[in-house]
Amino acid sequence: MASDPVAVNARGMKCPWPVLRAARAMREADAIIIEADDPIAPAELAALAQQNQWDFARLGDQRFSLRRGNGHTL
To answer: Which of 4, 6, 36, 63 would be 41's cystine partner, CB 3.0–4.6 Å?
Structure first.
């Protein structure tokens, strides 16, 4: 059973902080919704997801989803 995504607020933080907060949250969660307003954050979050084989989705201008893919284990 999948749990609800964990909300992560990284607004006002410059990279690499949004990515660090996302990585930390994903240690304990199967999915997160992160809000980040740094213009570099989307590319950095997508790279983090690709590196870890997580699914990445852009939910709006400043909202993003990271979710464990089928191939990822801790």
So the answer is: 36
Distance CA 24, CA 31 (A): 12
Of 37, 39, 72, the C-alpha closest to 55 is 72
Residues 34/56, Cβ–Cβ less than 8 Å: no
Task: Please state, in angstroms and rounded to a whole number, the distance separating the CA atoms of residues 31 and 28.
Answer: 9
- The full set of domain ranges for the chain reads 1-34+45-62
Q: What is the dihedral of CA 42, 18, 50, 46, to 10 degrees?
A: 0
**17-72 pLDDT per residue, tens:** 999 999 999 999 999 999 999 999 999 999 999 999 999 999 999 999 999 986 54
Task: Name the region of 53 (left: φ>0; alpha: ψ -120 to 50; beta: rest).
Answer: left
> pTM for this structure?
0.89
